[in-house]
Design a protein that fits this description.
With 45 residues, the chain is mainly α. The protein has one domain. The chain has three helices and no strands. The chain is globular, with a radius of gyration of 9 Å.
Length: 45
């Protein structure tokens, strides 16, 4: 799933918000979120 989400983000079909949701649903880890976006994952309340 990581490779797919990374590609979708790179071609601008996925936003940081969608990646954050993917992290919340355990599709990717917070570390992978940071690797894709360059930003630290901060859980939304």
């Amino acid at each position: 799933m990581f490779i797919t989400l990374k590609h979708l983000y790179e071609v601008k079909l996925f936003t940081k918000e969608k990646l954050a949701l993917s992290t919340k649903y355990n599709w990717i880890t917070p570390e992978q979120y940071k690797e894709i976006t360059g930003d630290k994952y901060e859980p939304q309340a």
